[in-house]
Structure of FtsK domain-containing protein:
Amino acid sequence: MTTKTLDRTRPPAAGHRRPPGFISRWRARRAEREQWAAHHRLAQGITAEFREACTALRLCQYVSVAAGITVRTPRVGAVHGGPPITLTVELMAGQEPADFISKENGPRLAHSLGGHGLRVEPMPGRWVRLVVLNHDPLRDGFALPALTVASGSEPVILGRTEDGITLGHAIADASHIAVQGQNGSGKSAFTYALLSQLAAADDVLVCGSDITGLVLGPAWYDTPHAVHQMTNLDDLEEHANFLEELVLVMEARLGEIPPRQDKITPRPDCPTLLVVLEEFPGLLRAADARPKPKRGEGTPMGDRIRSCVLRLLSEGRKAAIRVLMLAQRFEATAVGGGYARDQFALRLSFRVPADSLEMLHGTDARALGPEHANAAPGIAYLSGLGRDCERIRVPYLGEYGEYVDRVQAYARRAER
Ligand SMILES: Nc1ncnc2c1ncn2[C@@H]1O[C@H](COP(=O)(O)OP(=O)(O)OP(=O)(O)O)[C@@H](O)[C@H]1O
């Protein structure tokens, strides 16, 4: 009689998998239970930290019960250990999603949960999802691809939001653009990126005044734009004359608006005039420092420049004129007055002191002031485009030489 024995030392034949035995099934179940218990402990810990932080930040309600006063915090639903840690939270009566990030609440809640910042995503009903960000989502830069638009009505890339959305803006849209930032905060690099994308558009003319002679000037040599760019600081009269000519062009265009239309539609023979005013407060200071003409012998140069820019800002939109003004700080007196400042529908602030941020973006920006005062180059606070004010990372083209190369490569040649 032969006895069949099971040889456990021999490996199973190739291609044959033994069904899991009791021990391995038990081990898998135990690992699953331990994993679940670990997750449960983590979720409880996160919930406890969140509730304590809510109490400290007064994102809670005080309820009077028989035993005294008790504190109610927003109910926590699902918790995911991440990364990134996320919690679904039910809003309490009277609470809004923005309450979790208003004032300093966002960073404070996030720090309590071991993160850097907090993002609030609305959910159906009275629930929101809170995402604890491990690091600043704008930390990593993004390079501007070698792209240009064929027309000013196509959007150029302005930047990327914290959610990774790429924001575009067509220069033909009726908005003047204000850009402020301290030295080295990334204003010029942003302008290089913006203008290089527009270099090939035949219905956009990049003109203006640039006392630094870098944004305009050399990069645009031998293109049709160059003759409309004033870069000579020694001849301020040239800047004032040019702005006065622009006002005349604007008046002529306004007089030529076709019947049944309320604005000029840009075309190659009547392009959008993008008037770049680089370091505009510097131009005004230099103009104001010139000797004033005697009474009855003309208008001071500073006043001529101020009044032209004010007119371009307030009347230029219908005449396909867009102003891009750059300044270290948009103080009313430095940029031609509060009325002039109010004309900018699209506003970007690179690193600036907290009071400058509030000056350009209003009180909504106050909470971000201290943090933004130390923002890395290329991180800007943006208002406009029909969106809530938000932080963005603008695209980076590279150093100045790359800007010159791109403009020279894509801009059309001047007719001789
Ligand atoms: N988007 C960006 N991403 C990464 N680095 C950037 C970005 N923008 C600027 N930088 C870096 O910061 C430096 C300073 O930027 P930029 O010259 O544009 O500042 P600025 O605000 O124009 O300063 P200034 O007023 O002195 O001209 C650049 O040389 C570059 O190294």
User: Anything to note?
Assistant: The chain has two domains: 23-133, 155-410. Residues 155-410 form a domain with the Rossmann fold fold (CATH 3.40.50.300). The longest helix spans residues 22-56.
